[in-house]
TrEMBL record:
It comes from the Bacteria. It comes from Mucilaginibacter angelicae. PANTHER family: DNA-BINDING TRANSCRIPTIONAL ACTIVATOR HYFR-RELATED, TRANSCRIPTIONAL REGULATORY PROTEIN. This is Sigma 54-interacting transcriptional regulator. It holds the Pfam family HTH_8. SMART domains: AAA (SM00382), GAF (SM00065). Keywords: ATP-binding, DNA-binding, Nucleotide-binding, Transcription, Transcription regulation. SUPFAM superfamilies: GAF domain-like (SSF55781), Homeodomain-like (SSF46689), P-loop containing nucleoside triphosphate hydrolases (SSF52540). Residues 563-792 form the Sigma-54 factor interaction domain. InterPro entries: AAA+_ATPase, AAA_lid_NorR, GAF, GAF-like_dom_sf, Homeodomain-like_sf, HTH_Fis, P-loop_NTPase, Sigma_54_int.
Amino acid sequence: MKRVKDMDPGLSVPSLASLEQERRILSDLGNDITGVRDKNDLIILFSNRIRSLFYFTHTIVTLIDARDETYTPFLLDHKSSPIRSHAIYPELIKAHFSLNESFIQAALRAEEPISFLLEDIMDQPQSPSFLRANYEAGVKEILMTRLMKEGKPMGFIHIYSDKPNSFSIEFRNVIKGIAPQLSGAVSNIIKNEEIIKKEKEKSLLLDFSNGIATVRTKEELALAVRAVLKKINPPGGFVIRKINEDNTTMSPYAYDLTKTHDPKVIDALEQARYPINDGLQDRVLNSAIPLLFKVDREIQRGITSSYLQYWKTMGFKEIVGIRLRNGETNHGILFLDIQEINVQLLQGICSQISIALANIMANEQINKKQEEQAFLLDFSSDVALVKTKLDLQAAIFRVLDKTMHTQLSMIRIIDEDDYNLSAFMYDETLFETAKTHFAELLANRVTVEDAYTAEVLASEDGIVFNIEEELKTGNTYARLWKTTGLKNMYGLPLRVGNKNIGTIWLLADRLSKLMLKGICAQISIAIANIQANEKLLAYKKQLEVENDYLKEQIKTIYNFSEIIGNGEQMQEVYRLMSLVAGTNTTVLILGETGTGKELIARAIHNASPRNDKLMVKVNCAALPANLIESELFGHERGSFTGAIDRRIGKFELANNSTLFLDEVGELPPEAQAKLLRVIQERELERLGGKQTIKVDVRLIAATNRNLEEEVKAGRFRADLYFRLNVFPINLPPLRERLEDIEPLTHFFVKKYSRNTGRKIRKIAPKVIQQLRSYTWPGNVRELEHLIERSILLTTDGILHDVYIPQNTVTDKQELPHLLNHSLEEVERSYIIEILRRCSGKISGPGSAAEILKIPGNTLHSKLKKLAITKKDYFS
Ligand SMILES: Nc1ncnc2c1ncn2[C@@H]1O[C@H](COP(=O)(O)OP(=O)(O)OP(=O)(O)O)[C@@H](O)[C@H]1O
């Protein structure tokens, strides 16, 4: 210390007047202080009171900050300060000055007010800058007085004067006397300020907590946080990062959008995933108190996370990081660009943010689940309509690409051999930049044993292949996948029930497990449906082709114009046919065997409005009695022994068409009863079935029996007979329409010449003669067969002869020829003869067995026993 004036002013004895003055000032000041509202009013009052007695330029009060051993201006009388327009004044009034320098140390030690000449102290090492500033403004002297609280210095009264020797003993005594009161007042102000600050904080927290309680989205959270931070740290920015589901990275979640406008930056922020353990985020998460750090220093420490660089470019120097934690769970971090931290307040704010963050994230998860469910529902209804591969591809594209940013790379389906897989669907546009590589992949044979396919097929919910990782392991496909720019390839099994039907390969950055499972289930079902549909279509197509073919066949074989014969009797038949063809009336065609009953039935159907469908024929005589019902009406699975599958009956098959009941006279009684019911009710039940089925069937029945006699004999139901005999058409036997023999002969000659390839140029007149003289028990069928046989025996293109069967056994003239033969020989000749007449028909209607009145089986054994072969009766 160079020069200190009045080293011991306390030793001087104050005069009575000065004591009185001092008392007055003290009491006036005491009264003033109680009325002071603003802290700076206190110093102004103080200055004004003293100034009325003593001279000085200005005064300030500084406060000691024990934590960092500094003192800082607290009460300022700006108006009086000669340095108020000094450039560094704004800095000075906020600055913290060190207590570790000689000038202030002397002031600290002095129990009495102590004065200094500025020129003596201002150039000392570490002298506070305000000394020189005042000196340059003309101030000469400073009087420093300690303010004490509970026996410890709490600050100083600085009194400045631009005149030397301003601080008299009286002056000093007054200041000394006032100092304790001033200390008390300053303490009260500090306390009051603290209370106000606490109140403010409380109301700030309350406001924040009210505001944040209604926050539902991260955008609202960002706004609420911004609003509260503006109050405590107006210029600062902030970001809230949340811990991602992977628990190893964090991403920006909510931030001050007013600070960030660049869409590229926003996009980068949204996409960023910073590893938690980067040396900074983990420190914040592990710290119970806010962590203040300098951006530059962290970069120097070697923390490479890109956000530090970003902060640096944004001009953030000091940042506070506070963990956002609920109970024992960390949810994220709040980073604030702030210099001064109020730990308690920040922690209060952060605990509110933590609750809100946890709620919003839970809410987001619920929304996400709901969205996923809604999405799957949409997808499933989209997919339910899918019939073709193209539909499926469109549906997949619609939902996967548009809503989920997921690309379908390939669907492979396991072939019928259960070993190879074929590409079912793929998107080659994905691999535009690697066309050849993709083509190679497509050409590759893939089997269920291939490593990746086997892995996927064996997995429960599929495998996620991280493309970068796969590249490192040498997965050759990964090079191709990488060209798409997406991060992961998801290989999933397609299953229907427990059966693997194929694999699906999806490319995406991220996908939820639940979604994947749902999507795969839907796609699997869709593929199974498509396959079933394709099979069905192929089957349908085949049936259509067969149907067309059959129709064509039938048209060529049975054509109205191919009914030959223009005799009177046939004319009558045609008249009746054309009368009835266009109606739905039941027709009963009567006539001997081979007279053309079926031909007429088909012609009626073909001329009817039902001709676009096939006529369905049932031969009632050709079926075992026990199967007739099932043949006519169908049966349900297991309705009787041998009914393995459900079967549709001929009645149902003939719906909207015509049912031709051939040999209706042969129907067993139960079937007759059922048939009657169907004709009456126009509906039926399948055997073993409960459901009644409506049918619209036109009936044409035919028989060579005399039904009236059958009714009389009790073999045919009268009621059924009346139902069938609505419109009878009688076909005359051939022997009664001899005029038709010639045209029929020509017709058959032509037909069989064509069929056999033997051209017949001429028919000898004798032939027609022969034909007309025969009785034709087998009618037109017999004539047809005879012509066919005769043509086969013709060698020169001229039909010289026909091999008319001999007359029947009833012809008495034939009998003498048989007289000298054994019974067996006679039997043999007789059977051969009958077989000839029946054109070789052994059993059934119009057959040899029928004429011989023996069962077909018996005739068969006789033929064997008597060594009768086709040669015998066709020669
Ligand atoms: N008027 C005809 N014109 C041409 N062919 C005929 C004629 N009538 C019958 N046919 C032919 O005779 C054969 C037997 O005819 P169809 O089967 O229709 O007789 P059907 O009376 O039903 O015999 P069945 O009572 O034995 O069943 C068939 O090949 C048929 O084409």
